[in-house]
Amino acid sequence: MLTFMTVRELYEVTLSADQIEKDQIEYVQLEGWIRTNRNNGSVGFIELNDGTYFKNAQLVYTKDLVNFALIDKYSTGSAINAIGKYKITPDAKQPFEIEVTQIELEGACDNSYPLQKKRHSFEYLREIPHLRPRANTFSALYRVRNVLSMAIHEFFQDQGFMWVHTPIITGNDGEGAGELFKVETGKKEEFFGKEAYLTCTGQLHVEAFALAFRDVYTFGPAFRAENSHTPIHAAEFWMVEPEIAFANLEDDMNLIEDMIKYCIDYVLENANVEMDFFNKMIDKDCLARITKVRDSEFKRMTYTEAIDILEKADVKFENKVFWGMDLNTEHERYICEKVVNGPVFITDYPKDIKAFYMRLNDDGKTVAACDLLVPGVGELVGGSQREERYDVLSQRMDELKMNKETLQWYLDLRRYGGCQHAGFGLGFDRFLMYITGMSNIRDSEPYPRTTNNCIF
Length: 456
Known about the structure:
Blueprint: E1 2-4, H1 7-15, H2 19-23, E2 27-39, E3 43-49, E4 57-62, H3 68-71, E5 79-88, E6 96-107, H4 122-125, H5 136-158, E7 162-163, E8 169-170, E9 197-198, H6 203-213, E10 215-223, E11 236-245, H7 249-270, H8 272-281, H9 286-295, E12 299-302, H10 303-312, H11 329-339, E13 344-350, E14 366-374, E15 378-385, H12 390-399, H13 408-412, E16 421-427, H14 428-436, H15 441-444
Parallel strand pairs: 1-2, 4-6, 7-10, 12-13
Antiparallel strand pairs: 2-3, 2-5, 3-4, 5-6, 8-9, 10-11, 11-16, 13-14, 14-15, 15-16
C-alpha cells in the first residue's frame, strides 16, 4: 500500500510507541529538496528535506534502479518526487530510511546554486536572503520564530486578551523621539492631508482599545529611522505590546514575567529539535540560560538602588555612573549577572530619560516604569504604568514642547472614562535572538531592513 507522507509525519510515527501504526506503513511517497546526494557506485544516499521538519529523511537507492546513473547526477537543491519502502533503522543515526523504488526529478538545480558547500558565513548568507532559509541555521531559526509567534498569541488569547491591528501609518510620534520614516508619494501635496509616518509603536492606539476591551495586545511591525549599525538595531522590526486596564506597575511586571516564562517553556516543548541544534552549534549555554530564566523568580530593584550599587561596585565601567543617566548594557548586565544572578526588574526611572506617557511618581522626579534585565543581554522588556491624569499628562507634554494638537485624541482618553492602566513593549526579534543565541538582528529577521541595507 502506498501512502503520501511528509518528513514530519514519518518522524512522528517512527518515534511514537504505536507499533500498529508503524506496521501499517509499507510504501511511502515523499516530495522535497535534496540536501546531499552521494553514492559509492552501487548504493546511493539522498538526504531529503520537504520543509515540514528540521531533520532530513534518508533515501537509499541502488544500482538496480533503471535510472541509477541519472539519479546520481541530481544535485543539491533539486526538487524530487520519490517512492520507496519504509524501513525502521533503530541502530542507525536516523530512526528510519526509505528504500527507493522510484524517483522523478521535479525541478533541477543548476551549478550556480550558492548553497552547495556545507558551511557559509552569516555575512554571506545575508546577501542571499531568498535562499538562506534552506541553510540549517536559518531553517532552525525561522521554525523557532514561527513557534515563538504562536507562543505569544496563545499566551494572550488563553488569558482573554484581544488582538488589535494597530495602524502602520500614523500621524503621531509615539515615543517623542522624532526618528521616524515619513510617508510620501513624491507629489507636492500631502496624500493624507498632513504629515504621516511609519509607526514606531502601536502603543498609543492600542491604549484606546484597552479602555474599551480591558486586556488587549498588538503584535506587528514597527519602524525606526535610527542611523544605527549595531547588531541589535533594525529599521523594521516586530513589537509585542499588551495593554491592561485597571492595572498598575506591579500588575504589569507580573504579566511580563508570566509571558516570558510561558514563551520559553512553549519553545522548549514545541521546537526541541531546533533548540538542541542551537545549543550545539550556535550557543552552548543557550538551553541552560533560558531554562534558568524560566525557573527563576524575577527580582525587583529601583533605579536609585541600582545606581547606588553600581557606584559602589569595584568595577571600572566604560560609562560613568550617576543618578539621572540611562543605564548602559554593561551596567544592566552587571546588575543581573553579578548582583542578582538572574532576571530583575529595574523600576522607577528618572522622568527625564523616559517617555512622556509614563505615570509620574509622587516624588515628582521618577516615573512608574520598569525594564526587565536578563543575563546575557541586559534589557529585554520595557514597560510602565501609563499616566491616567489629564492635567499631569498635559503638563508633561508642555514641558517636552510636544505638539498636543496631533495627540488631543490621546489626551481625551483621560477625560472620557479614563482609568489606571499599564503596558509594555517586547522587541520580538531581540527575544528570538535571546532564546536562540543568535547575535545579530539581521539574521533573526527573514528580510532585514537596516541602515544601507534593503535587499529585495
